[in-house]
Amino acid sequence: MAIRNGIAKLEHKNKYNILEEKFNKSASATCSLRSDDLSEMSTICNAIRNSFTNMVQSLNEFQKLINTLGNKLLEINGIAVQQEKDYYEYYSYKLNNIIHELYRPLIAFTKATDQKQKMVWFDYHRRN
Predict the structure, then answer these.
(1) Taking a C-beta distance cutoff of 8 angstroms, is the pair 120, 108 a contact?
(2) DSSP element (H, E) containing 51
(3) CA-based nearest residue to 62, from 54, 51, 73
(4) Does a structural domain hold residue 57?
């Protein structure tokens, strides 16, 4: 266990030393920058900033397109729902007509008291 802790501390110290060396190198490199280097860095920063602005604008345009597509899908869905409602109402109307056409003969049949009246009713409606 002590060996593991020692190795972990050593690894941590090595990572710290490596980071410190990198920091010192970059700090000394920064001190020796020329004005050309600074203007190049400024140009790169501006390019990144412009690229970011363009990316945000592109994302905004993309979002608008997605919203437009979503609205179109809702519109299409609404049309489909309305068509289904219209079909339902049409077939409901047809079904009501069929029920009304059958209602009176069915009532007459159920009111027929004897078998002869029922046979007369059946023969009449089978022919018509």
Answers:
(1) no
(2) helix 35-111
(3) 54
(4) yes
Instruction: Give me the domain span that covers residue 116.
Output: 33-127
Taking the model in full, what pTM does it have?
0.36
In this structure, what DSSP letter does residue 32 have? T
pLDDT digits (tens, 9 = 90+) for 61-120: 877 877 788 788 778 777 777 777 787 788 778 777 777 777 777 776 666 666 666 666
In a domain, 115, yes or no: yes
Distance of CA 89 to the CA centre of its chain: 31
What digits encode the pLDDT tens for the residues 20-40? 666 566 555 555 556 676 777
Does residue 3 belong to any structural domain of this protein? no
User: Residue type at 61?
Assistant: E
Specify the number of domains making up the chain.
Answer: 1
